[in-house]
Structures are given as C-alpha cells and as structure tokens.
Amino acid sequence: xxxxxxxxxxxxxxxxxxxxxxxxxxxxxxxxxxxxxxxxxxxxxxxxxxxxxxxxxxxxxxxxxxxxxxxxxxxxxxxxxxxxxxxxxxxxxxxxxxxxxxxxxxxxxxxxxxxxxxxxxxxxxxxxxxxxxxxxxxxxxxxxxxxxxxxxxxxxxxxxxxxxxxxxxxxxxxxxxxxxxxxxxxxxxxxxxxxxxxxxxxxxxxxxxxxxxxxxxxxxxxxxxxxxxxxxxxxxxxxxxxxxxxxxxxxxxxxxxxxxxxxxxxxxxxxxxxxxxxxxxxxxxxxxxxxxx
Length: 293
Ligand code: AMP
Fold this sequence. Notes:
CATH class of the largest domain: Alpha Beta
Number of strands: 9
Bound molecules: adenosine monophosphate
CATH topology of the largest domain: Rossmann fold
C-alpha cells in the first residue's frame, strides 16, 4: 500500500494506474462504516484509493475541527488489511495553500436539514471532494447513506460539473443496538451511548408505521419524535421527511419514496441518522437508484 502526502506524488501514482479506480474519501478515525465502503470499492475495482483528510473548510469556527479524532497509524493499518492500494493523506496547508480562493457551491440541495444548521458545511464538502476527484480521477466514488444530504449534494455536483464518475451509495453500518457508526460516537459517555440507541428505534418505528400504510409525513415524523421523546437525554434538532431526489420537504401524503432524517443531540455530539421509506430501499441498489437521482 502506497501512502502519499504530496500532490505530485499522487499525480504520478495515478498516471501509472490503469483499469477501474474506486475512491473512498474519509476524514479518518476509521470504523466499520468506512471499512465497508473500502471493501465494496475493493470488490468492484482494479485499484482502490482511500483519502484521509480532516477538511477544515467544512467545519464552522465553533465546531470540533481541532478535537476531531485522529489516528493515522491505526487507520493505515486497517486500510492495508483490506487491500487498499493507495492512501492519500494531505495536510490542510497542501489542500489550501496561501491565497486559495476557489470554492464549489451547490445551491438548492444544500439548503434545509444540515445546511440550515451548518451554513458553510456543504461548500467545504463540495470543494474538497471536487479537489479529491480531480486528484484521484476515479471511475466510481463511494459515499455512505449516513450522510444522505452529502450524497445528494455530491451527486448534484457530479452531474452539474460533468465529473466523469459514478457515485455508489453504501447503506449505513450500525452498532448492535442500531446506532449508526460515526467517528464522533467516541464523544459519548457510556450512559449517553446507551441512550443513543433510541435514534434507530425511532427510525424503525416510523418505517413500521409506513409499512402499515401511514403516508402522512406529519404522522410519520410524530411516530419518530414520540420514540425519541422517551429518552430524556435526547434533544431533537429536527425530524424531517423529504423527497430523496431533490430534498424538498414533503408535507402531503405521497406514494413516492421518502427520506426520513433526523439530527439528535445526546451529550456533546449531534447524531445524524436517516432511512428511506419504504425500508426495503435501504440497500446499495435501492439507495443508489433513489438518493439524489
Ligand atoms: P467521514 O469520515 O465521517 O467523512 O465519512 C467518510 C465516508 O464514510 C462518508 O461517505 C460517510 O457517509 C461514510 N460513513 C460514515 N459513517 C458511516 C456508516 N456508519 N455507515 C456507512 N457509511 C458511513
């Protein structure tokens, strides 16, 4: 496995690669969710490039850029075990040299949900992902369902800017109690960690109501909220029902697939989760065909 921390080094390595290339962009502090993306990339491609970069432009000044967990040695060992070929590990100074001034701004799908609470977040994400696409030139890029709005933003950007690649969407990987794996889960105390299982139970309850015929978005949201409210430590930021293609809010009963998403603060971290309704769409094919297309 080649570990590369320079632009020239990456360009040189990329030029020598032929065949199908899969890229897995991450911020490191890898867990089974990231590893699942890398495994899928390994299965689908001749060459797998992973990137590890905690991207400062997607963090607001009051967010956890400095505190974000970092463990490069452990991350590299995990990626090596999976047979990843190349890992790109740039520094912020390499990605944003002095006088850097070009950003990618995706308009509508960055509004609402996370975009409302994190105003410049998706500008940072779209910018760094564009740069990583230009540097790694993948045939396919792997993203997780857990950050569903990010998938929609990246797909919009790929279509609008004619990036010659596919976006594969990988289902959320969960802990035994259903909590979505996240690098930020390490911020939870044991008590908060136990409480956090309520988020998955809220998704499942809404999905069950959907299966039983409930189609009114307000009622689906209420089912989820009522489960979340059983956990005193859970502070609900939003529970939303959106069109999974456009992210426009859905307010009338609809037979189209729906994206149910939520942000819940438990202790320090904001925990995000989502599912497609009907639940049967929450697999790679269903997600790839539905989210942001
Ligand atoms: P991050 O390092 O948090 O930026 O995540 C890198 C990629 O891994 C993103 O595409 C995430 O959506 C994805 N990811 C993070 N957590 C999970 C998870 N629990 N299951 C599946 N994908 C995930």
